[in-house]
Amino acid sequence: MNTIINCLIIDDEPLARELIGTLLVSKPDFHIVGKCFNPVDAYSLLLNDTIDVIFLDIQMPVLSDVDFLRSLKHPPKIVFTTAHASYTADALT
Predict the structure, then answer these.
(1) Chain centre distance of CA 13
(2) Which residues constitute the domain of residue 82?
(3) Rounded CA gap, 4 and 44, in Å?
(4) What end-to-end distance do the CA atoms of the chain give, in Å?
(5) Positive or negative CA dihedral for 82, 41, 9, 13?
(6) DSSP helix/strand/coil, 63
(7) Number of folded domains that form the chain
(8) How far apart are alpha carbons 46 and 28 in whole angstroms?
(9) Which tens digits make up the pLDDT trace of 19-52?
């Protein structure tokens, strides 16, 4: 029996949201609960749905990825995404 992994994609770049979504749709165990432009838009999904994994862009408008994560009492697993190699080290600290 397969366990479904509920995913949320948060990225301000439409192309990045679509690319991540396309990759996830090809995997039968992953279900995309939503795609958001910024972390603020994601709060309602996190309150109303079970989210197992967030695909989170490192550099976000409105609210930074770090501030967003710190605001979550019980954050799900996080996969940081970025098109900028210079941000990679920040995400790992």
Answers:
(1) 12
(2) 5-91
(3) 21
(4) 36
(5) negative
(6) coil
(7) 1
(8) 22
(9) 999 999 999 999 999 999 999 999 999 999 999 9
